[in-house]
Design a protein that fits this description.
Largest sheet: 4 strands, antiparallel
Strand content: 25-35%
Helix content: under 10%
Strand order of the largest sheet: 8-9-1-10
């Protein structure tokens, strides 16, 4: 089974700079823990005024928080693939003028994490503050035998901000024509996003 590093990437996208008012603390979104009880009902996010000409909407919308902000179309596909660790935190996306342009978006908060990284063979730097988390990868080496056969889209223990997807998920995203993302072969990934 092949795995890919999953990154949000889009041009001239309406850039989101913050979570809805009343959201949990930013750091909680990178922990793989449930946030549904803390997340505000009817939350709204808006395109940044710092990028007034960027207005494009994508299935995976770029945002400063580097989280998965997902369209209703992408959500339906992900749900149809039986990705069981998905928690959805619904929001409405508004443009620079306050008009609703994305009524059915949600933050995809992936729960838990897989022991996917070979810490002995990978080349990386640990985070100075979160001492159990990687800060940078120079050469990623996976341990496929420790990844659950049910894990299709997941966080990695030791690097919770890193999202991996399985090759069948990538193929489904491509076939459906989903927009706003790039993938990189996980095995040997050098941490760069080109």
């Amino acid at each position: 089974m092949k795995y890919f590093v999953f990154k949000i990437s889009a041009t001239e996208a309406g850039y989101i700079e913050e979570y809805p008012r009343g959201s949990p603390a930013d750091w909680k979104f990178d922990k793989g823990i449930s946030l549904a009880k803390e997340f505000p009902m009817g939350g709204e996010v808006s395109f940044s005024d710092n990028y007034p000409d960027d207005r494009n909407l994508y299935d995976f919308q770029p945002n400063m928080m580097s989280d998965l902000l997902v369209s209703g179309r992408a959500r339906k596909l992900i749900e149809s693939m039986d990705i069981t660790n998905a928690e959805w935190l619904p929001v409405v996306v508004k443009d620079h003028k306050g008009n609703v342009v994305g009524p059915d978006y949600a933050f995809l908060n992936l729960q838990g994490a897989e022991d996917a990284i070979d810490m002995e063979r990978s080349d990386y730097r640990m985070d100075a503050i979160a001492k159990d988390q990687m800060d940078r990868v120079n050469n990623l080496v996976l341990k496929p035998g420790t990844i659950s056969p049910q894990a299709k889209m997941f966080r990695c223990k030791g690097y919770l901000r890193l999202i991996l997807i399985r090759e069948d998920v990538h193929a489904a995203f491509e076939q459906a024509g989903l927009t706003g993302f790039k993938v990189y072969d996980a095995e040997g990934w050098d941490g760069f996003e080109l």
